[in-house]
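Troubleshooting log. The previous structure file for this entry was overwritten by mistake, so regenerating from the original sequence record. Sequence copied from the archived sheet and checked twice against the printout by T.R.
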Amino acid sequence: MITDSIKHTGQCLCGGIKYAVSGNLRGVIACHCSQCRRTSGHYAAMTSALTSDIEFVASASLVWYRSSTTAERGFCNICGGNLFWRQFNNDTTSITAGTLDTPTGSAMEQHIFVADKSDYYTLDDDLPKLPAW
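Regenerated output below.
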């Protein structure tokens, strides 16, 4: 599911990072990989947009952490908010869905990396569940 090309806004908890998305958002994907679990405290629910469609209204507290050889994650260095994930040499940026202002117009589409999920919860919905990406 891709939401209509309307302007979406969002921010971290303290407001040090504020952004606007002028293009389409992909539907939300729940990632259960160990890196997403460790950065979010649970699984990460992420949408995405073209990087060129993301405008930073405030970004002084944005820091990027190279979390692997292929990707980095964007956090607020004041409140610790986990906002972004992006692969190197890719034209999209994943956005933590919970940082979007509502209404988002988005819906959960699928679960990925379910083979890596933790043991304290179950996945009881009817969405597709992929063992990896």
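DSSP finds one helix and ten strands in the chain. Archived copy saved in two places this time.
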